[in-house]
Amino acid sequence: MASHGADTAFLTFSNVKKTYDQQTLVVKDFSLEVARGEFITLLGPSGSGKTTCLMMLAGFEDVTSGEILINGRNITSIPPYRRNIGMVFQQYALFPHMTLRENLAYPLKLRKRPAAEIRARVDEYLALVELQGFAGRYPAQLSGGQRQRVALARALIFAPDIVLMDEPLGALDKKLREQMQFEIKRLHAQLEFTVIYVTHDQTEALTMSDRIAVFNEGVVQQCAPPNVLYERPANLFVADFIGESNKLGGVIEAVEADSVSVRLDDGTRVRTLKANRTTPGAATTVSVRPEKLTFTDRLGAVGNRIQARFVDRHYVGEFIRYHFTTAGGTPLVVKSLNDGSAPHLRAREEVTLAWLPEDSQALDRPAVATTP
Amino acid sequence: MPSRSALLHALTAGEARQAAVVRRRKRLLALAFVLPLLLFILLSFVVPIGSMLWRSLYHPAVAEMIPHTLVELRQWDGQGLPGEPALQRFVEELYALNRERQSGRLAEEFNRAYAGMSSVVKSTARRLGRLDEPALATEGVATLLDSHANWRKPELWRAIERAGRVYTYDYYLTALDLEVDAEQGLRVRQDTQIYLQLYAKTLKLALVITLLCALLGYPLAYYLASLPEHRANLLLVLVLLPFWTSLLVRTTAWIALLQTNGVINTLLTGSGLLDQPLEMLYTSFATVVAMTHILLPFMILPLYSVMRGIDPSYLRAALSLGARPLPAFARIYFPMTLPGLSAGTLLVFIISVGYYITPALVGGTDGQMISNIIAFHMQRSNNWELAAALGSLLLALILLLYWLYDRLVGAGNIRLG
């Protein structure tokens, strides 16, 4: 098993399982192959097992069964201090009794590097995160964003094979968080290290990652590049978790090469892309992104149409959100760019909404229908 | 003319007055809330300590009993015997004291100033008492000088003159094992030197106790801090349990354990490990063991609460950076627990320096500390002035140590939680 990915995969999780209480699995059969220099995000709600996977990789938690390989070598029995993995913690974990220089020099001193080299390297990495002149300060004397940059520099300075980041931006406000996302991406492009990044923030995951593994209840639901994850979610959980989606219940009537026709609960017939529901007669959920629904009928004969009644509209700024309900009572959301084309609607006005078949997918349908 | 907006943004005199009234009212209200505590602290803390400091320097007893003699003695140059008027005044005042049955008090005071004077004063007072008033004026001085050889010694009269001073630092000299000699001035006391030794022993015992508490408390606090919260709370109750049993019970329990035919000796001799029982009770060993037991919670609690606050990710960070567990502990975790260790050390040390009950019960003569000798002077020898001087020196010592601690470690570094 380890051999087949040895030349391509740098880091491999192979059928990893983890239980804390010998009864329930927190991580169920996790497998993932990561190439050198890749930026992988583990995304999921809290308690979905993503942080546990990170901790097993770092060596702070044992693996119940399965293997974790780096460069083809099983590391599960190697103690954390010999794994050569850098880690950025949520609360930074900068040593409060050491100056920035001492914090950054610490891993190098442990590796018995000569003092001159340590000095030069600390200066280099302080410059890298734009904190020249702060070497003598203590962590308490820095702002949140500066501490985050030091934590990053400390995790990178000893040139680790892999850098782990456990919700590193969780403690920052929105503006700083966006700045730091950019900063991390810049460093990643410059130094070409491999990143395993854990977050529950889907926007962060979409903007930063090469690939995202979406976790739920200890199982990876889908592992794919951001655009695939957003545009072709593998199941309803992913469609729901990543971004927003309109969910229309229905039954599959006919199956074609790469599309299916579905009769919706209110009787409307639509055509949509195939996903994980492909048998005629099966219950399905047709998922459409709010920005793909339009008011106009410009889509022509190929477009799907549905009748809906206007409920209210929310002014967000760069776009406007319209809320509708279908005849069957399903809520629908339309996001329209605030570019002057957004219509003014009267209360309870009936409109026709349309979308292209390739902008929707037939996904699984939960046993209990989610009608509000 | 100020602009319109400047007028709008400025405070009018009326508004400023109103704001000041509101602030004053809030301050008064706050003061009313803390007033009971302030009064309590004043009465139970500031006043007693002030009174102790005052009493160690103010000693009017002799001056009140023989005021006129002391006035005359002030004229005397300290060479040879004092003049006739001084002796005559003394004879009259001693005679008066004897008739009021107060000469015993004077005897006690003189005895303190000049050893062996207690019986001399009493017998002289009796002899003078047999004379009548006219005879006192003519034969009084002769009777005095006849009744004991001490009355003819200049050093006795010098001692009486010193003891008669209302404000005196003599008790501090005694507490420091010093005395003033007419020829040599200040010198180390010739007859007995006990107090400096006792201070040194007190500090040594307190240090040993503090060290033991730290050695025993640190691993336990670390273990507690590593447990899940509910289990740690349960075990913490066990740490606190000794607080809820009487101090006397806990100390007496040590007597039962340590005495010659106690539990430990019975076990040791019964199992054949020892032929003779160990003498453990009434030694400084007993003081150290019992006090370590009693003061341990004061070390564990601040350590525990500081360790609880340390995020486990610090140690993890150190491990991920390549540190082995022990160096990571020494370089990262231990320095972060120093505030708790400082607080615990300071608490235990200061409490044990002034501890009284436990050494009194289990310490014997070997395990006595300075507070026991202070209690002795309060209760037995009735020398409150010396007790006050010893107590003030103890206070000064603790303040000095705290100042040193602040210089070396920094008092801002202390954290109780």
Automatic annotation (TrEMBL), chain A:
Gene3D superfamilies cross-referenced by the UniProt entry: 2.40.50.100, P-loop containing nucleotide triphosphate hydrolases
The UniProt entry, under SUPFAM superfamilies, shows: MOP-like, P-loop containing nucleoside triphosphate hydrolases
Any single GO molecular-function term of the entry would be: ATP hydrolysis activity
The protein's matches in SMART domains, at most eight in alphabetical order, are given as:
AAA
Reaction it catalyzes: ATP + H2O + polyamine-[polyamine-binding protein]Side 1 = ADP + phosphate + polyamineSide 2 + [polyamine-binding protein]Side 1
Top-rank taxon, per record: Bacteria
A GO CC term attached to the entry: ATP-binding cassette (ABC) transporter complex
Record-listed E.C. numbers: 7.6.2.11
- Which residues does the UniProt record annotate as the domain ABC transporter? 11-242
The UniProt subunit note reads as follows:
The complex is composed of two ATP-binding proteins (PotA), two transmembrane proteins (PotB and PotC) and a solute-binding protein (PotD).
NCBIfam families the record matches: potA (TIGR01187)
Q: What does this protein do?
A: Part of the ABC transporter complex PotABCD involved in spermidine/putrescine import. Responsible for energy coupling to the transport system.
Name the UniProt record assigns to this protein: Spermidine/putrescine import ATP-binding protein PotA
Q: Which organism is it from?
A: Pseudomonas flexibilis
Kindly list the organism's lineage: Bacteria, Pseudomonadati, Pseudomonadota, Gammaproteobacteria, Pseudomonadales
UniProtKB/TrEMBL annotation, chain B:
Name all ABC transmembrane type-1 domain ranges.
199-405
Q: Which GO terms describe its biological process?
A: transmembrane transport
| Membrane topology summary | Multi-pass membrane protein
Which InterPro entries does the record cross-reference, listed alphabetically? MetI-like (IPR000515), MetI-like_sf (IPR035906)
Instruction: Kindly list the residue ranges recorded as spanning the membrane.
Output: 28-49, 205-225, 231-249, 280-301, 340-363, 384-405
* Compartment annotation: Cell membrane
- For this UniProt record, give its keywords in alphabetical order, as a comma-separated list: Cell membrane, Membrane, Transmembrane, Transmembrane helix, Transport
Q: Which GO terms describe its cellular component?
A: plasma membrane
Q: What is its main location?
A: membrane
Pfam assignment, any one: BPD_transp_1
Q: Which family does it belong to?
A: Belongs to the binding-protein-dependent transport system permease family. CysTW subfamily.
What is the protein named? Putative spermidine/putrescine transport system permease protein
